[in-house]
Amino acid sequence: MARGMIARDGSFRLTTFSKDDGLIAGRHRAIVTQLVVVDRFPPIQHAHGSTIHSRYSSYATANLTLDINPETANSIELVVAKARQGQSNSP
Prior knowledge:
By secondary structure, the protein is mostly loops. 4% of the residues lie in helices and 11% in strands. The relative contact order is 0.23.
């Protein structure tokens, strides 16, 4: 399982075994989770950008895949939708 953090500009680097080593070649399903801290800190200390829809946090509903080719440099773009304001954030 690979993981990585999304930077403020939306870029990310994935890690599987050691820092920034990327993904193993092949097709992978992906999820995107977002930690939103709202307790105990003023907003300036936990700005997290727009909240994404919760459907991206489950393999059953995310519908995100990555194809990694070992022969080339791989650039991945994942497009996710924002959570709708004033609506439930359920899948």
